[in-house]
Specification:
This protein has 10 helices and 23 strands. It has about 500 residues and is of the alpha/beta class.
């Protein structure tokens, strides 16, 4: 009798283990306990199970069903719901996953390179900011840095409520932006940080979108050469040998370990596959972006690359055409008192040109940088300028949100009369009363420092001794411009040039 019982028990254990082993339901970690779902939009849910498997998703008072396709992937949309919670979301397929403490509110992606990755613990007043970061309905999740040519469907991460402990390692710009929305709108806010310091824009773009275009041929050829010839094991062996030699004679600096470029943040498509794809499709309100430093030497190429990236994300996301707001490059490097070429100015120009895409916005911060530090620590004001865009454009709040933007130039005698859009309550200056930062040139294209005067809410006159017939005007056209024009609400004027003379990055690919 005992043997029969033991046999039956063994069969039961085997059946349970086989059932567990065959369980196939998988979902990205962007779906988890404490997550925030986007309010007032159909919410996209997806995952993988056995091919042909029936799938049911339950949330609050609604239940939706679908069937996995031949590859096992399933997707459906929940009906839009207003802000609130906490709720439970249940996904039932060959097994059941239940997510608890789910809130509904506003969801934003925080992406880019190191100035977006820069955490709260390294920003201005980090100690004070952490002390007050007690927002249980502000939720944070960070995607680990994985660079790969293979599409990733998941990542190692989890949603957490914002506390003095959890906020320290989170994106400072992202947190301060989300906090402003949370406090203003009084709804839950979810922030997804997938930024990676030093990342190049092309790493965030699907490789096939770059292929076959003359503009990107040199870039792709360089990477093809690296892919064919780089041997990380060999590089590590050389490094270890160099360290051994250094340990013996202690001459010079200790050798630095090699970086595996093949899995880094510059290789085209690496970050699209590794850190974007696992969250791509999660219903969001929009994206805030801080990147461009790594592409400054190829600023003309960025004119095409940056809008290509934005549009490609929108084309693939559900829903598309979400709001996309970025931070223009800050002032950086040494100040120059005379007009000069600048790759950073050209990159800023490429960023401004991207405003031609719908539902986009730009936070100008030429007054917030640090000459000796590419990572300015004042992330609070950066985030506020991004938040102004979202509050005005996405939530209908009456705030001035855009920096003054060049509209047109007309020559009257020896003066250039320049008009601007988005001046708020009117043009103004800070620090000193006379406008600073303008240069002017005649037909010869040789720029000289100019004088300027505000002559109306949206109009300025610019002139210079020795330039009798001005043709071109530039403003804040430098790595670290000495400039001081803003609107009366304190948003600095957008750097611009009226000319289309070839820039220093025009041929760089």
């Amino acid at each position: 009798m005992k043997s029969l019982v033991h046999a039956a028990f063994a069969l039961l254990i085997l059946a349970c283990s086989q059932s567990s082993a065959s369980a196939a339901l998988k979902m990205s970690s962007v779906f988890g306990d404490h997550m925030v779902l986007q309010q007032k939009q159909p919410v996209h849910i997806w995952g993988w199970t056995n091919p042909g498997q029936d799938v049911t998703v339950s949330f609050d008072s609604q239940t939706k069903s679908t069937k996995a396709d031949d590859s096992g992937r399933f997707a459906l949309n929940l009906d839009a719901v207003p802000a609130g919670g906490p709720y439970t979301l249940t996904v039932k397929a060959d097994e059941t996953k239940t997510f608890s403490d789910v809130l509904v509110g506003e969801v934003w992606l925080c992406s880019g390179q190191s100035n977006m990755q820069w955490n709260v613990g390294s920003a201005n007043d980090a100690d004070l900011e952490a002390m007050t970061a007690k927002y249980p309905n502000l939720r944070l999740i960070t995607v680990p840095q994985v660079g790969t040519q293979e599409v990733q469907t998941d990542f190692n991460g989890q949603w957490q409520a914002c506390t003095p402990e959890t906020v320290k390692d989170f994106s400072a710009v992202g947190y301060f932006f989300g906090r402003q929305l949370h406090q203003t709108l009084d709804v839950p806010v979810g922030l997804i940080d997938n930024s990676w310091g030093g990342s190049a824009c092309e790493a965030w773009v699907r490789k096939d979108l770059l292929e076959g275009k003359e503009l990107y041929e040199p870039l792709l050829k360089r990477w093809a050469d690296i892919e064919a010839n780089y041997n990380h094991e060999e590089a590590m062996a050389k490094y270890k040998a160099a360290v051994e030699k250094w340990n013996k004679d202690k001459k010079g600096n200790r050798p630095n370990p090699p970086r595996n470029q093949l899995v880094g943040q510059h290789r085209p498509a690496n970050l699209y596959n590794g850190v974007l794809k696992p969250v791509l499709g999660y219903t969001i309100k929009g994206c805030v972006w801080y990147q461009g430093e790594s592409n400054a030497s190829r600023a003309y190429q960025y004119r095409d690359l940056f809008p290509l990236m934005i549009q490609s994300w929108r084309d693939e996301w559900k829903p598309g055409n979400f709001s996309f707001y970025w931070v223009q490059l800050a002032d950086f490097r040494a100040e120059k008192t005379e007009p000069a070429d600048s790759d950073w100015a050209e990159l800023r120009e490429a960023q401004t040109m991207t405003l031609q895409l719908p539902n986009t916005g730009e936070a100008v911060i030429t007054d917030l940088g640090e000459a000796e530090d590419i990572h300015p620590k004042n992330k609070q004001d950066v985030a506020k300028r991004l938040a102004r865009w979202a509050l005005a454009k996405d939530y209908g709040i009456n705030v001035v949100y855009q920096s003054p933007l060049y509209r047109s130039m007309e020559v009257k005698g020896a003066k250039a009369v320049v008009k601007f859009d988005h001046v708020g309550s009117g043009l103004d200056t800070f620090d000193v009363r006379s406008p600073q930062g303008f240069v002017i040139a005649g037909e010869d294209g040789k720029f000289v420092n100019a004088m300027a005067k505000i002559v109306g809410n949206d109009t300025m006159e610019v002139w210079a001794d020795g330039v009798a017939a001005p043709m071109y005007v530039r403003y804040a056209w430098a790595d670290n411009p000495i400039c001081n024009v803003q609107n009366k609400e304190g948003l600095p004027m957008t750097p611009f040039r009226s000319d289309e003379l070839p820039g220093v990055t025009a041929e760089n690919r």
